[in-house]
Structure formats: structure tokens, C-alpha cells
Amino acid sequence: SQTIHQWPATLVQPVGSPLSLECTVEGTSNPNLYWYRQAAGRGLQLLFYSVGIGQISSEVPQNLSASRPQDRQFILSSKKLLLSDSGFYLCAWNGGPVEAFFGQGTRLTVV
Amino acid sequence: AQSVTQLDSQVPVFEEAPVELRCNYSSSVSVYLFWYVQYPNQGLQLLLKYLSGSTLVKGINGFEAEFNKSQTSFHLRKPSVHISDTAEYFCAVSDLVGGYQKVTFGTGTKLQVIP
């Protein structure tokens, strides 16, 4: 069966520091991968999606970037965090099944 | 472009009362529709999905939803809620965009079950 791992679960980082969040999927190949951000009262905002290795599409301009170095690995990064980057970040995948499956999320607090 | 509208940001309801969470969507082609539930500080779990066939879809935890193509709606219902149903609920639509299944979510509805 397929599983999705996302870490860390919580993270507190100072303004201006770098960020790296990792997501990996097991039990499937060539998944579509997504990064969402959930800010209070704003629902789920799609940040990036990827349909294959090295293929990244950005939905909104922002201080973040994403990379897909391997088929089942999706990384969310920032060179310098802003206060406004705080939020709950969710990784998800779909592909053979049309519904999206989510990781447990990372609570990022920028101080 | 596809979009999802959840008109109610919060819905308070007494325990054992029925509830309906509303969802409307727009899409230019046939779509797949989903409801997800999110408990605090957790990821989203799939409640139910509509892919094709019967317009009444039954999901986990006693929830069901009805696909209404003419009204472009996919409302979620439960005849009797429990305290444990307190959570945030997201409606989503999946459409084939640029060769892949793109999933778009609504802004969520917080269900608060009152004892």
C-alpha cells in the first residue's frame, strides 16, 4: 500500500533562516506531488505541484521554492524565511487514484 | 478553470442533530468530487468521493454526499452528529488539467458539535 511521509512535524525558525521540508511517497511510482499551505482562516493554498522529476510548477509567487530530485521525493525550501511564511504545510500525492493523499503536515512558526 | 466554494466557514450544531455542509463547484468538463476531514494539527483524510455512477455517495463515519450536476453542488450530510465529528471539512474537485489530475480545494467549513 502507498504511504506518504512528511517531516518534521513542527519547526520554529528565526526570520532570515533557511528552510527545508521533505516529503517522500512509498508504494507508487511517478506520482503527482503537491505542496499546500494552510494559513488560519484561509483554507488550503496550492503552492507547487510536480508531475515528474525536475518538473515543478508554481501556483503563486512567493518566498518559497520546490524541488523534486527523485521520483518520490518532494522538497520545499526557502533561502530566507519571512514572518508571513508561518503556517501549516501539507504534502500530498495522487496519480493512479484520482483523489489526493496527504501527509501529516508540518507546523512552521517563524519568529 | 475549476473552483470550489464552501459558503459556510463555521457551522455550529447540537449533538445528535443533522448537519449539511454546502459545496458548490465550477468546472468546464466532467469532474471528480471529494470531501476531506481535518482534525487539529493533522493532515486531511478522505471522507468520500464521487467518480461516476450513483449520485448519492456514502463515506466513512456515517457521512454521505449527493452530486447534483444541474446545481453544480456536492453537499455533505450526516443525520446525527457526534462530538467526535468536530473538525474542519474540505470539499475538493479534481479535473484533468495539462495532462494530470489537478485537485482544487474549497476554503473549508469548521463543524463545531455542541454537547
In short:
The complex is a heterodimer of chains A (111) and B (115). By secondary structure, chain A is an all-beta fold.
Count of individual helical segments of chain A: 0
Helical fraction of chain B: under 10%
Number of strands of chain B: 12
Q: What low-confidence regions of chain B span 5 or more consecutive residues with pLDDT below 50?
A: none
Q: What is the CA–CA distance across the termini of chain B?
A: 41 Å
Structural Rg of chain B: 14 Å
| Beta-strand fraction estimate of chain A | over 45%
One letter per element, helices H and strands E, the order of chain A comes to EEEEEEEEEEE
Features:
heterodimer; A: 111 residues; 7-stranded mixed beta sheet; 4-stranded antiparallel beta sheet; B: 115 residues; mainly beta; 6-stranded mixed beta sheet; 57% strand; globular
Structure description:
The complex is a heterodimer of chains A (111) and B (115). By secondary structure, chain A is mainly beta. Chain A is 0% helix and 58% strand. Chain A is built from no helices and eleven strands. Chain A has strands spanning 3-7, 10-13, 19-26, 32-38, 44-52, 55-58, 65-70, 73-78, 87-94, 101-102, 106-110. In chain A, strands 2, 4, 5, 6, 9, 10 and 11 form a seven-stranded mixed β-sheet that branches. In chain A, strands 1-3-8-7 form a four-stranded antiparallel β-sheet, with no helix packed on it. Chain A is globular. The mean pLDDT of chain A is 91. With 115 residues, chain B is mainly β. In chain B, 0% of the residues lie in helices and 57% in strands. In chain B, the strands form three sheets. In chain B, strands 2, 5, 6, 10, 11 and 12 form a six-stranded mixed β-sheet that branches. Chain B is globular and about 45 Å long. The interface between A and B is medium-sized, with 25 and 25 residues.
